[in-house]
Amino acid sequence: MEKQAQVRREARWREDFPIDWERDHYITRREMAKFLTLGSALLAGMSTAIAVVARWFGRAPAGGAAVLVGRASSIPTGGSVLFRYPTEEDPCILVRGSDGVLRAFSQVCTHLSCAVVHRPAEGGLFCPCHHGWFDAASGIPTAGPPTRRLPRIRLEVVGDGVYAVGKEV
User: Is 51 helix (H, G, I), strand (E, B) or coil?
Assistant: First the structure.
């Protein structure tokens, strides 16, 4: 009687997990290591390809439409002008440094996308959200949480007109 109960328990187990051990395909450690190595290499290669493509297409075309930012004569030394480039949803800031050179950057902070403001007395661009500072000459972060530089807007001066012609990410 006890033997019948044991056979019944074994038969029930076999019904729940019907595995044919002789035909089951085992994977060796070497095959598993090869699969993981090739899979990791494929993922690394695809990540690199995506980064290269994103970097390439993230730049504005060299012959893109130029947008008039303002008149060079109307921007005093240490002054700034806000504009939008390449679309109306992209705020930018044009700064004339103490050396008289015009430079433009995206106005979106690289930390958490707050708007940066020009502080000519301190010689930098300030993000009021988390007290981040950027150098007004290069866009490189100098203090606070931001770690990436502000994207630079390429400018062309034609006569007295200042035109935005491209964006460097």
Answer: helix
Longest dimension (CA), the chain: 106
> Would you state the torsion angle of the CA atoms of residues 11, 17, 21, 25, taken in this order, to the nearest 10 degrees?
170
Nearest to residue 102, comparing CAs of 92, 90, 114?
A: 92
> If you count them, how many residues does the chain have?
169
In this prediction the pTM is: 0.63
pLDDT tens-digit series, residues 6-61 = 655 666 777 777 777 666 677 788 989 999 999 999 999 999 999 888 877 765 44
Which residues neighbour 73 within 8 Å (Cβ) at sequence distance 6 or greater? 160
- Its sign, for the CA torsion 129, 130, 135, 139, is negative
